[in-house]
Write a structure and sequence with these properties.
Cytidine Deaminase, domain 2, 5-stranded mixed beta sheet, binds tetrahydrodeoxyuridine, cytidine deaminase activity, hydrolase, zinc ion binding, CMP_dCMP_dom, metal-binding
Length: 131
């Protein structure tokens, strides 16, 4: 499948501009391509109870399901300077859950697979295999 990284970057930047970040002042935007060719996106949404903050990836996963579900094949994350940002550890787990095999991420050190950014991950298959 052809991945248009520029489209993902543009959509991530657009999403980032809608972030609600009164506490950190650190807006994040993400976008991803789905297996069926949709582009989903999200921004971070903070909360006065800081720990309740939704990372941009959380709102993107909501967008994924809201628009029909499916799996992610390519992912892009930006900060307020439009620079590439690495997803936090929790969000790597979130992305892993909804990844297509071999999902790609644009990272600070080039394009990587989901397995490279969360090696030996615990995931849905473990629940079955180790039940
Ligand atoms: N943040 C994200 O939205 N995604 C990440 O992967 C990294 C961190 C947000 C959470 C918080 O609103 C802000 O960045 C500062 O940590």
């Amino acid at each position: 499948m052809q991945i248009d990284w520029e489209v993902l970057k543009t959509e991530a930047i657009k999403a980032m501009q809608n972030a609600y970040v009164p506490y950190s002042k650190f807006p994040v935007g993400v976008a991803a391509l789905t297996e069926d060719g949709r582009v989903v996106s999200g921004c971070n949404i903070e909360n006065a109870s800081y720990g309740v903050t939704l990372c941009a990836e959380c709102s993107m996963v909501s967008d994924l399901f809201r628009t029909g579900g499916g799996r992610l094949v390519a992912f892009y994350c930006v900060d307020k300077h439009n620079n590439i940002l690495m997803p936090c550890g929790r969000c790597r787990q979130l992305l892993y859950e909804h990844s297509a095999p071999g999902m790609l991420l644009e990272t600070v050190s080039g394009i990587k697979t989901i397995d490279e950014v969360i090696p030996d991950a615990f995931g849905p298959r473990d629940l079955e295999a180790r039940a």
